[in-house]
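Hey forum,

I'm writing up a methods section and want to include a predicted complex as supplementary material. The small molecule is copper (II) ion. I've pasted the protein sequence and the SMILES. Can someone with a working setup run it? I'll credit the forum in the acknowledgements.
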Amino acid sequence: MLTGGCASEPQVDATVLISNVRFEPQEVEVPVGGTVEWRFGDGGLLHEVHADGVFDSGVNGDSTFRFTFDTPGDVEYHCSIHPYMSGTVHVG
Ligand SMILES: [Cu+2]
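Reply by user p_vandermeer:
Happy to help. Structure tokens for the complex are below, copy them as they are.
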């Protein structure tokens, strides 16, 4: 753990690895106000995590994307580049 970093860095409640052109795991569950982190770890292959009207990671190949979910419910998302890649975040 680094010290002296940004103290307001949100806690991550669930992590999704993007690897082998799929989301791993495909479904995660977080509390309301929980944060999910997607790790782009597909050898540089570009992906874009997208949920209509909720969030979009932008095209990304080797970094991470975080989103905090403030509304209870299920959020289905997919990869804009590979529409057959899909996942669900269960909030609350
Ligand atoms: Cu993709």
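Some notes you might quote in the supplement: The chain has one domain: 14-91. The mean pLDDT is 93.
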